[in-house]
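Why Permease IIC component? Reviewers of the renewal asked for a concrete example.
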Amino acid sequence: MNKLVEFLEAKVMPVANKVGSQRHMTAIRKGLIATMPLIIVGSFFTILLNIPIESVAAIIEPYKPMLDIPFRYTVGIMSLYATFGIATNLARSYNLDEMSSGLLALLAFLISTVKPIHVVEGVPDVVDTGRYLNLANLSSSSLFGAMVSAIVAVEIFNFMKKKNITIKMPEGVPPEVSNSFIALLPALVIILFFWFIRYILNFDISTFLSTLLMPLKDVLAGNSLLGGLLTVFLITFFWVLGIHGPAIMGPVIRPFWDISIAENIDAFNAGANAHQMPNIFTEQFLQWFIWIGGAGTTLALVTLMMISKSKYLKSLGKLSFLPGLFNINEPVIFGAPIVMNPILGIPFILAPLVTTTLSYFLTVTDVVPMMVARLPFAIPSPIAAWMSTNWSIPAAILVIVNYFIALAIYYPFFKVFEKQQLEKEALEQK
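Here is what the prediction returned.
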């Protein structure tokens, strides 16, 4: 085991750290995470519109079109927000003006993704004469186009600024005015570049990337058990190395996660049954069914620590329980530690693989519904699973079952680790 640890430290960790800290990958990860408050709030409106109480539903029914608006302007145009978030984070790494960069990226995304619809003759009480943008083009389906547009726009801006192909204002001009003029020529180049691609070459970046990458989405975040197990394994494996698993996987898997839950929410709002959603493996599937107490299902480990004979483990367990109840597990990951600890690392990886398999089969056999909402990660898992699956009691029960399965898997490994800790404490007392 020592040789394995040495190999991981020497060969795997440097590569993982390099990938995780790469400029563009970091910008994508941070930009997508920045959209979470909007997506979560939009999801609450989905839950509100589908409260399973007939008297409440009857009251809400006349106001459904109005209550649907917050969802349309959050989840419904998430790619627009993602573009701005990715661009500003990438601009920060280049020390560019973030506001100008974000606006240029939005410009690039809109030109490359949304063709204005020109209504020449309006229909009374239906649509007026004018130009319209289809909100559907700004949804999660255009997320990959948003990433490319943001990165390319900021790279053009950065290149032109480095080469001094900008308009410089005299000293003493307020920074906000100076930054606007610096972005003037890059704005022209970006407009012409994306206009040429979309309208002269007739090439739709978002459609092309979605078509190209959707097979990968179906593997990692669709309905493939193998893909789901691979995702779970990689996230927990990186955590054992001491690297934030979602941070490494985020730029790769998060766009697929965001698309998957958005597709489910759209289908559910359109009237589809929660058992018949497009995607099983959303982030919420992992968050509520698998990551009970955090990645690795560590609430089970914390429970064992709380009744440990080891003073250190017992104290750490008590300190980690409340954060773990709200799915925050860094105290136990780095405190036990689980990092670079093969004894606890094995069940940390194994338990989620087992519970993922069980949860998958219970989902495909319609015992539990699929996820139809996106809630804050700090809600206790049984409650969040119940709410996110259209108020399904079997979903909440599954969380409890998975917790006890994880408890059983952790137990023998924990006893070995506890024995080592007790021996260490005994030596320290001598």
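The beta strands are 117-119, 130-132. This is the kind of structural detail the renewal will allow us to pursue systematically.
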